[in-house]
Write a structure and sequence with these properties.
3-stranded antiparallel beta sheet, alpha/beta, 4-stranded mixed beta sheet, 7 strands, single chain
């Protein structure tokens, strides 16, 4: 799901994004001098989310393809735990985009509440939102909030339920594909504290 510019509430620190971008730009300078290897273009400040990225890559070819596509883009995608629309939505691509001469930065928030989504549903939800991020990055003309909203008015459909935002068939299909692949590649139970009961529907 994608928030539009009228969305009122996301329970994350908006100021954190400016700090992250500044740190990234500093790191890029350090990398250019050969001091550090290039960082992944899909990032998080949360170690648990970084582990989810690796698990998703290992268990789902669709998830892996999303990460690889973003790695070959000009984008930096940050994903954190948080709450969209006062908790009414399980995940969203936020209407915040920052651009430099060579890169674009976008943010994703997904719910940390395991009562709302199972472990595999969370991975599929992340895949769904990464597809939204890739939708932005595939359009070189999307460089700010105005162009981002204009793109989703062309590609997406307004979400129901009184929320401000857009959904796309591509993101829905991606989430479904990831979830299907996860079921075919189960995680070992002793490595999966969130493994409760099987589910067949991706919560949105």
């Amino acid at each position: 799901m994608v928030y539009d510019t009228h969305s009122a509430h996301v329970a994350v620190d908006r100021g954190l994004f400016s700090v992250i971008v500044a740190v990234v730009l500093l790191s890029a300078s350090t990398t250019a001098n050969g001091a550090e290897p290039p960082a992944s273009r899909v990032r998080s400040t949360n170690g648990a989310i970084l582990e989810l990225f690796e698990e998703g890559r290992a268990r789902s070819t669709t998830f892996q393809a999303l990460l690889d596509a973003i790695e070959h883009s000009d984008g930096i995608v940050y994903l954190e735990f948080g709450h969209c629309a006062f908790g009414h939505l399980n995940g969203c691509l936020l209407p915040f985009i920052a651009s430099t001469a060579s890169e674009r930065y976008v943010r994703i928030v997904v719910t940390p509440d395991t009562r709302r989504v199972s472990h595999d549903q969370l991975l599929a939800l992340i895949g769904h939102e990464l597809r939204h991020a890739l939708e932005v990055l595939e359009h070189a003309d999307v460089v700010d909030l105005v162009t981002m909203e204009a793109m989703y008015r062309r590609l997406g459909t307004p979400i129901a339920g009184g929320q401000h935002g857009f959904e796309t068939s591509a993101a829905r299909a991606t989430g479904d594909a990831v979830l299907s692949e996860l079921f075919r590649t189960p995680r070992l139970a002793h490595h999966n504290p969130w493994w409760k009961t099987p589910v067949t529907v991706l919560c949105e």
